[in-house]
Amino acid sequence: MVLAANGPAAASDPDNCLFCHQFRGLSRFDAPTGRIHIFAVEPSYTHELRGPHARLACTACHPREEVSVIPHREVSRVNCTQVCHLSEPDGLERRFSHAPVAEMLGRSVHAPQMLHGLQFAGGPLLGQGQSPCLYCHDEPVFRNLEALLPSLALRGTRAFDRCDVCHAEQVPVDVAYYLRHVAARIQPARPPLEQAQVCGVCHSDAQVRQARGLSDAVASFVRSFHGKAALLGDNSTAACLSCHVRSGQNAHSMLARSDPQSSTHPNNVADSCRSAECHPAAQPRLAAAGVHLDLPTQRASLEFWIAAAFILLTLGTFGPSLVICLLELGQIAVGRHHPEAHDTHRLIERILAHPDGRTRLTRFTVSQRVQHWVLVVLFAALAITGFPMKFADRDWAQALVQTLGGLQTTRNIHHWAGIALVLGFMGHGVYCLVELRRRARRQTGVSPAVSYWRALWDLPMMVRPSELLKGRHLLQYLLGLRPDPPTFGRFSIKEKFEYIGVFWGTTLLGITGAMLWGEQYLSQYLSGRVLNIALIAHTYEAFLAVIHVGILHIVNVMLSPHVFPLSPATITGQTPLGELAEQHSEYVEDVARQLGLDVRTGEAHG
Fold first, then answer.
1. By the 8 A CB rule, do 595 and 587 touch?
2. Which 8-state DSSP code applies to residue 54?
3. How far is residue 175 CA from its own chain's centroid?
4. Which residue ranges in the chain fall short of pLDDT 50?
5. What's the pLDDT tens digit per position in 127-181?
6. How distant, in Å, are the alpha carbons of 70, 182, 252, 571 from that of 256?
7. What is the residue range of 320's domain?
8. How many other CB atoms are found less than 10 A from the CB of residue 283?
9. Cβ distance 528 to 286 under 8 Å?
10. How many CB atoms lie within 10 A of CB 504?
């Protein structure tokens, strides 16, 4: 009587199948095949009309003569194209069939005869006679309505009272159901990662790919910019269907790339990229960017060789620097010191006794220290917000992005930190030009051009040929081939190379970052392949910078016994005495001469 009084409830389960099938433990173990068959049905799906199949009786798909007796007879495979009867609030039934969908599928690249012929590496995925629709589809569930209409607050049935004034009796319509249905259908049926998983059933299977001559498009998508965004929780990024189905087209009519009507045909792919949801302001050149760029399998491409060059650059710069760092720590561990370090240390003490000594021994000015810490903060912000995109498949990356407020917030932080870094870099350039001009004015008796060249050559961070020889001398000393290490001035050869690395890295990262951020504007002038190169360069240069700073620089300024736990040089400007004596004895001697002290005795000249 209760079911008879409640029309929707009666229509959702008129045969009372949920009396048994609502229990989650309803299952059977098939001993011959070793498989478990689960027969449980989530009752809320039916009673709350959570999907389009909820309006169907179970016997709309399962023959009544087979399931009307208990225990059931052997149940036939479901035919997804058979005619169904949909129950309406007015009591009428509407005939419905997926036959038009089957016709579309028959003309597509996923024709049933092709799907039936698939052979998988792990054996058959479907039983004999099962519908090939199951390769892609499971029980359809409506997507979240609030995602499309956030202003709609669902509070039971009262949210639709206004609609029910007309549609409850005069024009009977189940408003809540149809609103959920429409909202679900104008959104993608699945978020990007779930789409990729569905496509991966075939497109990532080794045997299917070998038989069809396919690449692992799903793996290359997940490694792409769009795929990594999806891994980090962005459901608005492009998914498989965004490119492989033309806007407004049914996914079941997907065509092969060779078909002139296909969205991925060379003549049409640019329109897919320039859709209203993706890059509406881009030019057709953008389509040359590699969404499925798979470097390991494209060894003849320019992108592969650029990536290889960056890997060699990383090995060629970080590798030797790491070896030198370890060798230096080894010298400290065995107690090996500069033979003249004791004399230099005594000279430093006499310099510090001079009224101007401490000021003269300050290696970093206030301006330089401020610039350094601005760089530290911006570099850390860029690394924290940028590296989750590099390692988007790691749990820590996803947790970090969520902690920062989501992918869009993380991107905004990265973009603004990048702008600040470029502005700071330009400010440092102005600082260098002012210093160059000040030094040039000191030159007398020469032309302005010569004075500027000399001033440039005298800048503290310029690498001179003699210092390159000292670099070789240092390596020979660390390898035990020379008894004494080289001496350096205000800045060592390692510090100068690190400084040059910041110049090079900031320039490259700034240019490539701006290119990637303004891809739509860039497409007006350059091919999309330039974006491939920019992405490779941006990623590998950032990786080189982080491992160099995170390992070598941190060791030199924090973990080295000379400076542990932190060198005060960039805070107070004062370098630890041990570091001065071991690595900057030439600088100490220059300061002593400027103060009128005898370098050998440390006493003032008469």
1. no
2. G
3. 41
4. 1-10, 155-157, 606
5. 888 889 999 998 888 877 766 666 655 544 466 677 888 888 888 888 878 888 8
6. 47, 29, 12, 63
7. 302-340+367-574
8. 19
9. yes
10. 13
